[in-house]
């Protein structure tokens, strides 16, 4: 199982970025996927998650209305569109996957599979 994240970068306050996570090696399976982030000196936190069919999504309060998670089930790609970025969004962003029919869990410990992380930097 491999997760390859991409799309990070540096933007100004109010800018946009789109992260993508390509999943491979799952074979036939049902899995939820999520994005987490970790800023220096802070714990890894849930950002957004989506269930296997793409019908149920969840967001942490601080990104609601600004971030949108989506998935292409035919290509096993999950994306995170981030708009109106703020300096406090600066962090390393990780995609994660768990084999489940349930909505994506918000706890990092629930995910056995992780991507390598991609840096997002928002300057004021």
Please describe the topology of this protein:
Blueprint: E1 2-6, E2 9-12, E3 17-24, E4 31-38, E5 45-50, E6 57-59, E7 67-72, E8 77-82, E9 91-99, E10 113-114, E11 118-123
Parallel strand pairs: 2-11
Antiparallel strand pairs: 1-3, 3-8, 4-5, 4-9, 5-6, 7-8, 9-10, 9-11
- Report the biggest beta sheet as strand number plus sense, adding barrel if it closes: 7 strands, mixed
Number of strands: 11
Compute the separation of the termini in Å. Answer: 38 Å
| Outline | globular
Helix percent reads under 10%
How big is the Rg? 13 Å
Q: In percent terms, what proportion of residues is strand?
A: over 45%
Number of helices: 0
Contiguous runs where pLDDT drops below 50 for at least 5 residues: none
- Class computed from helices, strands and strand pairing: mainly beta
Query: Whole-number average pLDDT?
Result: 94
H and E order: EEEEEEEEEEE
Provide a compact summary of the structure:
This protein is an all-beta fold. It contains no helices and 11 strands. The protein has strands at about 1-5, 10, 15-25, 30-40, 45-50, 55-60, 65-70, 75-80, 90-100, 115, 120-124.
What does this protein structure show overall?
The chain has 124 residues and is mostly beta strands. Helices cover 0% and strands 51% of the residues. It contains no helices and eleven strands. The strands form two sheets. Strands 2, 4, 5, 6, 9, 10 and 11 form a seven-stranded mixed beta sheet that branches. A four-stranded antiparallel beta sheet has the order 1-3-8-7, with no helix packed on it. Strand 4 (31-38) and strand 5 (45-50) form a beta hairpin.
């Amino acid at each position: 199982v491999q997760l390859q994240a991409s799309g990070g970068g540096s933007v100004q306050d109010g800018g946009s970025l789109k992260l993508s996570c390509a999943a491979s090696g799952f074979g036939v399976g049902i899995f939820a996927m999520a994005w987490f982030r970790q800023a220096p000196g802070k714990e890894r936190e849930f950002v957004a998650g989506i269930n296997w069919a793409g019908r149920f999504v969840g967001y942490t309060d601080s990104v609601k209305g600004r971030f949108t998670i989506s998935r292409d089930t035919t290509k096993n790609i999950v994306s995170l569109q981030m708009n109106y970025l703020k300096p406090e969004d600066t962090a390393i962003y990780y995609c994660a996957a768990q084999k489940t029919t349930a909505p994506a869990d918000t706890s990092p410990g629930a995910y056995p599979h992780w991507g390598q992380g991609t840096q997002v930097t928002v300057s004021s």
